[in-house]
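User: Show me an example of a complex going from sequences to structure tokens.

Assistant: Sure. Here are the input components:
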Amino acid sequence: MARLTRRFFDRPALRVAPELLGCRLIHQRGARGDWLEARIVEVEAYAGEGEDPASHAHRGPTPRCASMFGPPGRFYIYRCMGLHFCVNLVCGAKGQGGAVLLRAACAVRGLPTMARRRGGRSGRELANGPGKLAQAFGITARHDGCDAIAGALRVEAARERPARILVSGRVGIRHATERPWRFFVADDPSVSRTSLNRLARQP
DNA sequence: CCATAGATCGGCT
DNA sequence: GCCGATCTATGGC
């Protein structure tokens, strides 16, 4: 077990985000159930209330983003475009509203279950996007607000730090509010494919 | 390879 | 009403 600490998440999302690369997203379903595990390869930071126009927390708490304002180290899960779910980790002190979006991961354990949930896809296609990652893990709104440190669904510390990390703008954010807050593992096939990848730089 | 339509929900212009 | 922290299927080059 390589548990993360509450303190790890009790920092600005921008600081936590790059350190989540290489960490493991794990979904342990009962003593005899499946063990799903994936190495996180792409994340985005979103700041709290009043700091970041692209963040759901920008204008303060709403019913949807209430868990962003809860204690750090828990999940903020929301439905995107009416269809998919996106998985975030709450960062910073309680009441601030910061979070890191998990955008992509490389599946390392429980591949058959993920493949079934992903309609028979395999390899990098299992979790190379925010909605795909949530689908592969079976994550829905019922995980919103759940503990991400010791729960059945959780994040564990990295065994090895990624060799090279790159930064780019966040995907799908309007130019006026754009910030270089997307972090991903260089040359990793499980990173989502976007034109921003070519423009990425060293942190 | 690239562009686009459609699914469908919460929050705000 | 409209737009968005998305993905897939489809059609064109």
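The lines above are the inputs; the final block is the predicted structure for all three components together. The longest strand of chain A covers residues 35-46.
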